[in-house]
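hey so i finally got around to running both of the ones u sent me last week. sorry it took forever, my laptop kept dying halfway thru and i had to restart like 3 times lol. anyway pasting them below in the order u listed, first the sequence line then the structure token line for each. didnt double check formatting much so if smth looks off just lmk and ill redo it

first one:
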Amino acid sequence: MSIAMVTAACGGGGEPGGGATEASGATISVNGTEPENPLVPGNTNETGGGKIIDALFSPLVEYDPQTAQPANMVAESIETTDSRVYTIRLKDGWTFHDGTAVTAQSFVRAWNYVAYSPNGQQNGAFFSQIQGYDQVHTEDPDGTGGPQTAPQPAAQEMSGLRVVDDRTFEVTLSAPFAVFPIMLGYRAFSPLPDAFFTDPAAFEAHPIGNGPFRFVSRQPGVNVLVERNEQWAGAPRPSISGVEFRFYESAEAAYADVVANNLDFIEVIPPSGLAGNLYQTDLANRSVSRTFLGVQRLGFPFYDARYQNPQLRQAISMAIDREQINQRIFGGTRPPADGLVAPDVPGRVANQCGELCTYQPERARQMFEATGYQGAIELTSNADSGNAEWMQATCVSISNALGVQCNFVPVPTFGEHRSAINARQLTRIYRSSWVADYPSIENFLNPLYRTGGATNDGEYSNPAVDALLARADAAPSIEEGNTLYQEAERMIIQDMPAIPVYFQSFQAGWSERLQNVTVTPFRELDLESVTVSE
């Protein structure tokens, strides 16, 4: 059996040298947030750095910019007979920005590096399905807050990866996993050149990818500049000559610059622009509104003993008037979340959360008072991406329903917010949105709620959930797996490790310079198709 979805598709990948569009000398500017880490694919799982990584690197699989349907990119074929052993063949002609060839070894070496836990890569858990992962990746037995440390792994390379020849490698998983080919478009699975392993510090200062754009410079707190890679083997080739990812102190400032044509693109119009649909006047014929594969959540730091009681978490969820926040803050553009999985994601079913995501102030107060929680409730988020208004409104709703003081405590930047989350330093309930890495219900559960998951930031753990997710992973088909993932979602919701608040939609805007604007289901400007007037 082959994975027809992947092996038969050449989609936007094209052949080397094909699909070129008329090149422009213009560079565009795109709103962004300061990347949390150096621009290494295996160590970037936040959106600010992610959009830049996606410009610099091309993975095995790409996702259609309109539908998110996966198709081959660097991969020529991905074949399996049992959903456990996959043979991956690369297209010829792909190179890194330093001119070296993209080979099977480029992937195998990169994947082993990311999975090896002493290297501290945030995306290591994405390789947990590969045979031998448990030999290269160990966990801290008492969490990052405890005195113990993770033991040294028994091996440095996963036994499930084997290079066959320069353009072919074989991946053996520890159990059948039908979703695996869909995952391969996520940035964690990008290749790395030999230069990374020769001098990691030099690479971090000047990343070398294989994507449609080459790194030029990074000025912390200001911007990252990239330029078109004329040797890129994908298609369609960008017509713009480069991109400035520009960092603002607030979404309002970025929005004002788009209105004034001083910034070319913003993917999230702040609430001040949404009020009364002002953006449709400010940006007449240069904005779009659509849903995307994301959910906005409030996460609990489980390493703080105050949040251990599930009734407390459920009570806070039922104290949030999601519809009122949707109408008053977002003008009706953010549907109240009824589960952990966003609409349009394959495998999702509606209303998994039921009454636990329904505003019930009286019941919420009864449950809250029974928990014996003392002191004020505090929420936190970064303030540079248009989240302050809805977080404050959420606090008001919680306070009114529970009869307890609720404070919103912002931090200045997304980078600072993520650093505190990753360092397990939070003492407050925190904003934690999720945008799909790849289009599958599995991606909304395993990374976020499985013990040791790549983005299980609150350190939630339930062995029964882990076991059910493992059964779903090993299901013989995507359809059978989805049924088990849905069951796991219902189980997780009862624990309420994170409160789903609203489903993500975006209202993006652009300057008068841009044409042919496509914003992907992952809320990114499609840099390969956008055009610009000089």
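and the second one:
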Amino acid sequence: MILKKMSFGLNVQKYLMLGILLLIFISFSLATPKFITYVNLSNVMLQVSLIIITGSALTLLMISGHFDLSVGSIIAFSGVMHAFISKHYAPTPISIIIAVLLGGLIGYLNGVMVTKLKITPIIATMGTMYAARGLAYIIARADGGANITSGLPLDFQSFGRGMVGPVPLPVIIMIAIVAIFYFIQTKTNLGRYSYAIGANKHSSYLSGVKVDRWVILLYVLAGILAGFCGTILVSRLGSGVPSIGLGFEFDVIIAIVLGGTLITGGEGSVLGMVIGALIIGFVANGLNLLDVQSFYQTVIKGAILLASIILERSLKNKIAQG
């Protein structure tokens, strides 16, 4: 009975967030004719693609009761490494692989610190957040400037600016990664164990689940996808910029929470995160088109986040009470 109520509650929550997304979409469509154009919607999808790609792995990590503040800095570090290696040592495809693996290595360090050294996720990932950002600046400085802009190979920008027909390549990649992580969430042991660990880590351990191993794997996946986003972003910009990704981790976490994932773990979904990211993307884009000043935008985004969460929690409490 309780499980049926929880399942019903999750479905209602998903439809509620979908309704809010549609309401925002229709409101901005009526408010400005520039909103529903191919160029504008394509730009929105391009902007949210990085949030959704990183959020796919981070959602499972948060469902397991953990989180990662270092993903924005991993984007900067991996992006600068991609530019540095492409310029000095290896062809662009090789530099992409190395940069992504370096992102995974930082994720591994995060996982080991949290599980083996028993450092809380907020402290461990805050440490790597500062370290990775600092390394990005050091590498750019070693190249001779604030950013790595000159001497990059001709194919450097093709990855981030590529198109498949009328659709940007990063959007195609985003759809593929969401499909993969939806499969992982619903059909694999990693998905099932993420929920179990988030609901009760001790019981999961007593049931034979290798908790530390699965949590480290989730951190590695978050690092790999953040590193991958770093290579996409610097390819799109055409230069290695150590300041990129500042505050990115909060955009991803907001999208995940907005999509119904509990910070305490045990509940959430990849598709919910996608809806949350689209809400953030459409709101930011619509407010820009309406020339709303940035500080008002921050207030409006915060209000939407709080209102959505309060509404969602109230609804779930009513469902739980029958």
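quick thing i noticed on the 2nd:
The beta strands are 163-164, 167-168.
anyway thats it, ttyl
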